[in-house]
Design goal:
heterodimer; A: Ammonium transporter fold; two-stranded antiparallel sheet; B: alpha+beta; about 20% helix
Chain lengths: ~425, ~120
Amino acid sequence: MEAPAATTIDPGSTAWMLASSALVLLMVPGLALFYGGMVRKRNVLNTMIMSFVAMAVIGVQWIAFGYALAFGKSVGGLIGWEPDWFFLNGIPHTKLYADKGVPELVFVMFQGKFAIITPALISGAIAERMRFRSYLVFILAWATLIYCPLAHWVWAADGWLFKLGVLDFAGGTVVHVAAGVSALVLALKLGPRRDVARGAPVLPNNLVLTLTGAGLLWFGWFGFNAGSAVAVETPVAGFVAGLAFATTQTAAAAAGLTWVLVERWHHGKVTSLGLASGLVAGLVVITPAAGHVAPWAALVMGVLASAVCYGAVQLKSRLGYDDSLDAFGVHGVGGLLGAVLTGVFCFTPVTGLLHGNVSQFGKQVLGAAVATVFAGLGTWLIATVVEKALGSLRTTDQVERDGLDIAVHGERGYHFDQV
Amino acid sequence: MKLITAIIRPERLEAVAEALAEVLDEGDNYRLTVDTVEGHGRQEGEIEIFRGRRIRSRMVQKTRITIGVNDTYVDKAVEAIVKAARTEGGGAVGDGKIFVVALEDAVRIRTGERGGQAI
């Protein structure tokens, strides 16, 4: 049942949505720093630009047709189709979004930041070896053919998963499962980095950048999650936004703490990267649940996220695939766990397994499974077509040895030795 | 004239510089060139933990000192470096190495002086 459309603007909610949109965008440079610090010196710029360039590429795609595909009038719950909205024509700046009292253009921007960061997350798995041109074509195709439909299914009022009652507060399935699973598929398709394959030590160039990035991610995530109250409550800046803010903080803290404790037990050291990885895992796991669970549940979810993701990250060297910066290990695994645990702990607007609601748990599993299969198969298809069309997904062996910064971009990240 | 190249632990640089000053400084400052180098001898690279995996780097960071000295100062300089760079309690793997090679000539760029005077 649709709520009546809003007729007056709600300044408080509009202000919060404007701020949230900017916060989510800040996560993209945050991600660039987070990833950029973990690669070798010769690839720092290439790794960072892979996140930054999504702001440019998807930033245009979203305005041109992305929003119309994700949130336009539904075609059978499968995809939006609203040619009037191409280039945001047909959305006057005085139009309010649904029943929210927030300008639709603000909602367009808020959703656009999610569309930007999601493909950027994938870049962590293929860092230090993907051909830049193939990456650009891939993320444009992925955002259009995977992200837009999935966002429509889960978040649009007529999307088939939304109608089914699958909960995904801020993008556990649409963002993290989709990006994480796609990251794994793309990493498998590309194969391991040459130095990883031959067992050479691969060490991060600057963990100071990584920690800075992790801090920005945590900060930005408050917009990501608490801003997502736009989907469930009027006014937007209300009780659910407050709940999401509290659970986000709680899960990140619990997960950061858990990761370093596990690491202390495993290797006898508390590492800075461990703390950063843990808090990100906590932020990922709480994303689908933020406005649906209580803070105590967020605490439990954070602990579980780090325990499980730590294991998943260790698994990659055993299984032999090279997910360079653990995009799957943290985002894919954390996203799946979060989507499923949402069905255990949720209490608003519906209850979960803990209150005996088995069907909600089933719906969550279904949502996670659909996102996994769709993103996995879709990525494999897109990557195969891009490979055929452009010749290769991977850069040449020589470029990989020289580093992508100088070979692809004609720049070096550091000139510390020069006066 | 000899050219002395000493590869030492970075944390020993201060002690080595002080010891060299005692034997080389004739009231007009002695000369010393220092740079940071990487390499390995018998000492293995340090272990880092990267996302729960232990990774040993192949190279160890060291400090390299280069000084040119006149023949009468060679033994004194070498002894000073050995004394200051050796780990307390009889030394340890990784303390470093000193190379002494014959030095053909030296030129002070400012004045054009050559040989022992220019050192």
